[in-house]
């Protein structure tokens, strides 16, 4: 078993592998991930290029892959033979005892026994399901295709076929949602005994249908105080039900944290494959083009589809470590920050930290700098303040 650690720059350490499949049945109203409705599209030409990129990235990769995450999009929308081919290729990432977690995203109502069996046979250990709400009207507002009644049978199908871990995503802050309907969704989710629950506040991303409706005054966003109450209600309710919070939006039963995402939040290395996928290996970051036709063309002409690349310098790394690791309940690792940036966070942030501690937003232990419950409610402001301090104190690439 390969341990994922904090060290981005140490060659030979484990990294994550992300594969982006950009197809969905239809576009949900809030979604700004790169995905297109699959209806008339032939998925095979894209899959062929994704497989090619996967082979090249794995061959070039000096590290062992410890976790795999296949998302999108809705990977399980691929025909069975294409999914089988994809999993066959992904299995080149490493032997089963090296891959500590293999997650696939899926939607309720889209998984039958044959697909669930194929996932397990392909090495999938974890399915992350976009339940979002157990209230029909809220799912309609989000423009989701499934109904509340699809969720429990889909979870049962996954369990019956031997998927080891199931995670459910829920959304709060939906227009029209109340504390009562949110608490009903949480209760229904807990009743299904998933291993992991993620609760995200609804955001209005530019270019999405919900954002457009909001601009036109056709929907009214949830009141900020109500949204904060929903969030704190979820933190308390899930904790009582045995789900420990380990990240701003993520809650897990013991032993069921998402290892792949922990690697992101700890600023670890990862390879990304597919349109719009990003990768971060040995201090270099890349992002593939978010367009299927352009991706296919670029793969054919130049053998890669990177649209952006950058070298992450010390200042960027400091900012990113603050942004990502303060999302974790454990907080920012002081030791890891020192090792990777050569900067002592307790010295650099001394004045800011003292003030934030006095205000009750941050705690500092021997090993970590972490947000308090109150600090978590204004996490963006705290992160911006600490990140601004980095800009003041560091210059030049390392
Ligand atoms: S199913 Fe997921 S990826 Fe697809 S459109 Fe909806 S939210 Fe976006």
What this model shows, in words?
Residues 1-12 and 394-398 have low confidence and may be disordered. The chain has two domains: 15-265, Aldolase class I (TIM Barrel); 328-393, Orthogonal Bundle (Arc Repressor Mutant, subunit A). Helix 1 packs parallel to helix 2. It starts with 14 loop residues before the first strand and ends in a 5-residue tail after the last helix. It is globular, with a radius of gyration of 21 Å. It is an alpha/beta fold. The protein has helices spanning 44-60, 80-90, 113-121, 136-141, 148-160, 179-191, 209-215, 224-240, 259-265, 292-302, 314-325, 334-341, 345-348, 350-358, 373-377, 379-393; strands spanning 15-21, 23-24, 36-37, 65-72, 101-106, 126-132, 165-172, 196-201, 244-247, 250-252, 270-273, 278-281, 284-288, 306-311, 332-333, 362-364, 368-371. The protein is built from 16 helices and 17 strands. The strands form four sheets. Strands 9-10-8-7-6-5-4-1-11 form a nine-stranded mixed β-sheet, with helices on both faces. It binds iron/sulfur cluster (SF4). Residues 24, 27-28, 31, 33, 35, 72-74, 107, 130 line the site of iron/sulfur cluster (SF4).
